[in-house]
Amino acid sequence: MEKYIQEDLDKKIILLTGPRQTGKTTLSKMLNPDYDYFNFDNPDDRLGLQEKSWDRSKKLVIFNELHKLKNWKSWLKGVYDTEGIPPSILVTGSAKLDTYRKVGDSLAGRFFQFRLHPLDLKEIHNFLNPGNLEAELDKLLFSGGFPEPFLNGTTRFYNRWKKSHLDIILKQDLIDLENVQQIIQIETLIQLLKHRVGSPISYASLSQDLQCSDKTVKRWLMILENMYIIFKVPPFHKNIARAIQKAPKFYFYDTGQVIGEQGIKLENTVACAIQKEIHFREDCFGETKKLFYLRNKDKKEIDFCTTSGDDPVLMVEVKWKDNSLSSNFEVFRKFFPQLKMVQVVKELKKEKTFPNGAEIRTAHNWLSTLTLP
Fold first, then answer.
1. Each residue's pLDDT tens digit, 175-188
2. Pairing outcome for strands 88-93 and 13-17
């Protein structure tokens, strides 16, 4: 993403978002060594922001967690409209900045957004040059792709890191941004979701478990999405109204949080990789892509389907160990004959292709070179 952000820094405000501890501040400071930095969580920096006293001789000014400032968009718009660029302005945040409008003027036309994800196998392959991709995938399945625990590589470190990581989000960010008091119930919701990754989620079932209304569950799930803890994968349907009514699936940005068999962890890892690629193509090239799953009335299912524009272009089925092609590809191929079909398998003796165009690929090879049609 670095070169694409560099190209835009002298044209627009840059909003860099993503989960906590993915490296947003590190990336920001790499863009130009001549920067001034303000973190809203720091009391001294908050005063500097109120005074607007950053060093205007610097080429870049970085505002971290600025969305916690009341009416931050209106404040930022005022700075941009009054002073313009330079210095270049980069705003980072561990929440979806387009969601936290906070009452105030819009930044429409004044910013470009980039979303930074945890490491995936493609990034590891391209930038860390590992000797054994299969071993790196095993690490991703266990500890997820957040840089600090992934690079540390030990079970002891990751187990302590993931607890403190969630605690900060729930007990600091959640209260700061959403003024939510039901922390224990939201923690319980997260625990329930950890066991239900890859399964369609029933709001009614969750509301019974949590002893609250469907509406409350939906609001909490949206908050967890906005805080970059989980992301939603809805079922694909040409009729938007019907698609909204159907049960979505939820996946974690941190695969290590997933509780269940190895195949579910692999499915979560593949979901993360596809979502990351979609966001990269959207943010850097302006493409319109989305991630869905496929399911029919007979409960035949394909794990993932990506679209380009409004058209389905790729079906992906994830298996831990299966040399035979899923028969469900043909079920959906009748409706979408042009779709690329890929079965991703962790333990596979030999890769295969078939007359109908379907492919069976080893997970580490496919993920390390992932491209979307």
1. 766 556 678 888 89
2. parallel
Q: How many whole angstroms separate alpha carbon 36 and alpha carbon 58?
A: 6
Same-domain pairing of 232 and 149 = yes
Do residues 182 and 299 both lie within one domain?
yes
Q: What is the pLDDT of residues 195-209, one digit of tens each?
A: 999 999 999 999 999
Do 54 and 61 touch, CB atoms closer than 8 A? yes
Mean pLDDT across the stretch 127-144? 89
In CATH, what number is assigned to the domain containing residue 16? 3.40.50.300
Query: Domains in the chain: how many in total?
Result: 2
Could you tell me the residue range of the domain that residue 60 belongs to?
A: 2-115
Say if CB 36 and CB 131 are below 8 A apart. Answer: no
Partnered with residue 294 across adjacent β-strands are 302
Q: Distance between CA atoms of 183 and 44, rounded to whole angstroms?
A: 29
Domain-located, residue 345: yes
The β-bridge relationship of strands 301-308 and 311-319 is antiparallel
